[in-house]
Every structure is written in C-alpha cells, then in structure tokens.
C-alpha cells in the first residue's frame, strides 16, 4: 500500500476538516474534534497513533494516524494528487481506504487459497488484531473461528496469532524495506514509545515469546515483562496480536509518508496491466510500474517463472526515476505461445513482442535488466539494436555444459533435466499439479539451504509472495517454460551477434544452481567489454534479497 491507498482527511485553519482533494467538509470531524486532535498532536510531534475510541463510523479501515502539516515536504501536494497551490494543512488524518484494503486482502486470499470463512476472519484480524473482536466482526462462532485460525497458521507457516497477524499485514501492505532502521524513529514517534520498547514490540509482534526476547536482548525477563506492560498501556491493546496489528499499520504509514530524506510524501508507483495483439493474432501480456513517460527499464523474467517482478527492486527503480515494464515471453503467463517451438525462433518472437509493447507505450529506448536468462538477453539486444541503451544481467545462467557444479534439490532437478530433457514436461506438470503455496515455500527453503542470503530473504513474507505470484501463472501456460528449459538441458548456447560494449554483469558470491566463478569466467569471455560486479553478500536471488544494491547497479536515468 502507499499514499494512494489511504483515505485522507485534511484539517485546515479555522479549524475545519475536509476530505483531501475536495471542498467537501468531512462530516465525521467537527471543528471541536479538529481542535482536540491538534491538541493531541501537541508541539514538537510530527505524527501519532490515535486512541482506539477515535474513528468509529469514520470512512476507511484499520487504525487512524495523525500527521502534522509541518512534517510534510514540498512534494506533499503532488504525492497526494491535489493541486500544487492546495493550502498546507495543519494536520492530516490517515486511514486505510476501503477499496485498497479489499484489494490487498483479495491478493492474500488468492495467493494462499483462503476459503470464504478464512478470508472473512483474516480481514477482521488485519483490522483489529484482537481475536474476540475479529470473531464478532466476521460473524463467526468461537469454534469455527479457532479452526479458521489454525488453518491460517498452517497456510502462512506461522507459530501463533501474533505472527499470523504480522504476516498477513506485511503481505497486504506490499513492498516494505528489509531494513527497519530508516523508519524506526518515525514509528517510535507515532506510537509514543522509545527504542527499547520498539525492539521488544517488534519481537513480540513477530511471535517471539517473552523468554526468547529476554535471551536475545540480554535483558532480564522481569524487564521484558515491564516493557511489554508499558507497550500495552501506551498502545491501548491487550495482546501480542494487537501489537502486531498496530505496529504493522504504523510502519506502513511511516514508510509510505515519511521515509524520504526531505520528509515529503512518497508517491505510490502506478501499476497497469495491459496486453497488445501482434501479427497472427497472438496476445502479449505485460505490466507497467511507474509513471508513463519516465525513462524505461524492461525487466526480463527468468525461465522458471512469469512476469510478476521482485517488487522491492521495482519500487527502488521507481524512486530513482524509472518506469518498469515486465512482459510475459511467449508461452508464459498471459502471452500466447510462439508459432515455432524452436528456441531461437521463440526468443526472436519474444524480442518482437517487446518491440510491440514499447511501440504501444510510446517508448523509444530502454535499459534491459535480465535475471537468470542471460543467454536469452542476447536476442533482445540483437533484435532491438540501438533501442537498448544498456543491458544488465544479474546472475546470468550459462549453458548447462558450462555449469558443472550445483547444490541441493534444485541442483538434483537440474541434473535430472540434463539426463532426460524430454521428461521436463511431465516433471513440471506433476510439480504444479500438487504444489500449494506452503509446499513451494518449503521446497524453496530446502533448495536454498546452503545459500544463507537466499534463505534469509525467504523469511520475508513479501519475497515469498512475490515468488508465488510469479510461479502461479505457469499452471495455465507451460509452453514457454518447456521450450526454454528443454533447450537449455540439451545444451543450447547462443552468442551475441551485435555490439557487446553496453553490457553489465552482476553476480552473487553464494550459489545453488551454478558456481558464480565459473559463470563469471564464461560470460566475461563472451562479453570481454562488459563491466563486471560481484555482490559478495548475495546469492541466487539478488533482486529479491539485495534490492538496494541491485538498483544501484542500474543507477538513475541519465
């Protein structure tokens, strides 16, 4: 979620309240209430959580947050979608908008296969945190509600109700920083707690028991209990799950509004799903993240998933000034398969599809970013020529004969593919038929067990959800997966035919499917004029685990 997903009420001089972006008075907020809110904010405060008795009957969902007008930077009006001459408010009252809340919950329900009862309870838990209140809001009896919680925990892989609520809200709110430090000061200010309180609150919200918090922090159990009692009193909550609820919402408000160095509001990247029809009647599906007209990065998906991208990486590119296009290649996701099953013809068709998308979007030149499909990138640069200004390959996959070392279950699958390429259709079909979100995540953890950076990334629900959303469309369209992986298993080895001075190679040091040193030697031989970088703390999934470093490799538009 972000700025565009909030219902925002502005308190203007008078004081009076209006729905931001209109002259309509906010009927839910009288002048007397405005004065009371400004008193609650007090001098020297930039934002705060409102007590729970505020907001009954107000538009929106979840907790209410108050942001001082003085905390807003020069870009606040543009970020909120109002005229640049809009008067600076004394304060803004924020609450998550009903439509955005429903869309976010729908994404969770679809991604995890939640039933109607599970969805209703999850929606209420996300809003209230409290089990009793959520049960009443979902109109469930206690026994069906408890059973639904057990099923939610099994599907989310969580240990208790607090961790379940935290997991649910982190997925609903979408891209979030992997490093809490930039927003910690703001979150502490919102919740009126200190750094020690905040660290304990984060731990309890993540499902860690009191004794575990004491051991990890070096504090006594009595100190942890005292801090928790203080947290409960200040937040006006009665359980760890309610702490999860309030903390996740406050963190999202902090990141969405106040995490930029200049304190300006952070605009939410626009997202559009679209398709074009190309010669022969084929459909090409694509998505655009960011503002139309901005310089464009095209992100190529790997050969084992579809176009849904690593959203943290995309968000950072948006902040750097890029719009990001992701296009399903032939036979992946929503794109029709190519007329020919020959792999060279398949990638040539993919390059023509991208050219058609660029034309439809009015884009002349792009920066091409590839994850995994290093060899396939050559077809795009050769076919598009000068329309590709730069090509950045993250952990490019070498030909199988140049990849003698691998590890774990994915490595075993790779060796099976190499021994019997024609079995790929059967193997992947069986895998997808019986795959559930839980099994996919468990399988990924087993596969990355020897790559600590990748394993750590999978602890982040956002990363797991991104991967699931990228894999799920394979169920309905396997043609492209089979063409690319069968050809790779048979030793397909294309070479660039055009210029090679605009490539950048980026490798992680940890590995699963192929040794990065061997891969680096292969691609630097093939592309001798390419810049080459190694991110020593990264593994296979660089764009997921190290979005900041990956975005820095792309840089800002010229």
Automatic annotation (TrEMBL):
GO terms for molecular function: DNA binding; hydrolase activity. SUPFAM superfamilies: alpha/beta-Hydrolases, C-terminal effector domain of the bipartite response regulators. One of its GO terms (biological process) is regulation of DNA-templated transcription. Residues 295-398 form the AB hydrolase-1 domain. Pfam families: Abhydrolase_1. InterPro entries: AB_hydrolase_1, AB_hydrolase_fold, Sig_transdc_resp-reg_C-effctor, WH-like_DNA-bd_sf. Keywords: Hydrolase. The keyword Hydrolase applies. Transmembrane segments: none annotated. This is Alpha/beta fold hydrolase. The lineage of its organism: Bacteria, Pseudomonadati, Pseudomonadota, Alphaproteobacteria, Sphingomonadales.
């Amino acid at each position: 979620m972000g700025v565009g997903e909030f219902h925002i009420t502005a308190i203007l001089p008078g004081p009076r309240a209006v729905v931001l972006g209109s002259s309509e008075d906010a009927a839910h907020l009288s002048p007397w209430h405005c004065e009371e809110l400004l008193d609650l904010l007090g001098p020297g405060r930039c934002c705060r959580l409102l007590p729970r008795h505020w907001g009954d009957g107000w538009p929106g969902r979840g907790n209410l947050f108050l942001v001082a007008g003085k905390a807003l930077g020069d870009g606040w009006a543009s970020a909120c979608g109002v005229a640049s001459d809009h008067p600076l408010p004394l304060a803004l009252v924020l609450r998550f908008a009903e439509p955005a809340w429903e869309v976010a919950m729908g994404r969770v329900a679809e991604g995890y296969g939640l039933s109607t009862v599970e969805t209703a309870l999850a929606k209420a838990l996300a809003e209230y945190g409290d089990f009793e209140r959520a049960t009443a809001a979902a109109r469930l009896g206690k026994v069906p509600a408890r059973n639904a919680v057990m099923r939610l925990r099994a599907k989310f892989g969580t240990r208790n109700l607090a961790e379940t609520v935290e997991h649910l809200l982190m997925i609903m709110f979408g891209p979030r920083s992997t490093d809490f430090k930039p927003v910690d000061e703001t979150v502490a200010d919102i919740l009126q707690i200190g750094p020690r309180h905040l660290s304990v609150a984060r731990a309890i919200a993540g499902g860690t028991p009191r004794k575990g918090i004491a051991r990890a922090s070096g504090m006594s159990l009595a100190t942890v209990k005292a801090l928790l009692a203080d947290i409960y009193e200040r937040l006006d909550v009665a359980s760890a799950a309610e702490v999860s609820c309030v903390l996740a919402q406050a963190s999202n408000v902090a990141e969405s509004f106040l995490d930029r160095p200049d304190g300006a509001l952070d605009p939410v990247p626009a997202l559009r799903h679209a398709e074009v029809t190309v010669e022969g009647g084929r459909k090409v599906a694509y998505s655009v993240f960011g503002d139309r007209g901005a310089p464009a990065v095209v992100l190529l998906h790997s050969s084992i998933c579809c176009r849904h991208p690593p959203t943290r990486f995309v968000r950072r590119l948006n902040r750097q000034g890029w719009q990001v296009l992701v296009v399903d290649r032939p036979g992946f996701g929503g794109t029709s398969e190519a007329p020919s099953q020959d792999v060279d013809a398949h990638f040539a068709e993919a390059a023509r599809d991208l050219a058609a998308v660029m034309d439809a979007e009015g884009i002349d030149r792009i920066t091409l970013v590839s994850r995994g499909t290093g060899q396939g990138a050559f077809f795009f640069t050769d076919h598009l020529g000068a329309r590709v200004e730069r090509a950045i390959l993250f952990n490019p996959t070498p030909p199988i004969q140049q990849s003698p070392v691998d590890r774990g279950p994915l490595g075993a699958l790779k060796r099976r593919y190499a021994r019997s390429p024609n079995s790929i259709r059967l193997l992947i079909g069986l895998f997808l038929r019986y795959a559930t979100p839980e099994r996919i995540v468990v399988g990924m953890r087993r596969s990355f067990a020897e790559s600590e950076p990748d394993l750590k990334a999978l602890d982040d629900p956002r990363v797991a959800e991104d991967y699931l959303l990228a894999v799920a469309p394979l169920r309905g369209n396997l043609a492209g997966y089979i063409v690319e992986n069968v050809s790779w298993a048979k030793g397909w080895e294309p070479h660039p035919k055009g210029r090679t001075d605009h490539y950048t190679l980026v490798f992680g040091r940890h590995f699963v499917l192929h040794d990065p040193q061997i891969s680096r030697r292969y691609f630097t031989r093939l592309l001798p004029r390419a810049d080459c970088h190694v991110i020593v703390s990264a593994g296979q999934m660089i764009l997921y685990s190290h979005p900041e470093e990956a975005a820095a490799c792309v840089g800002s538009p010229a």
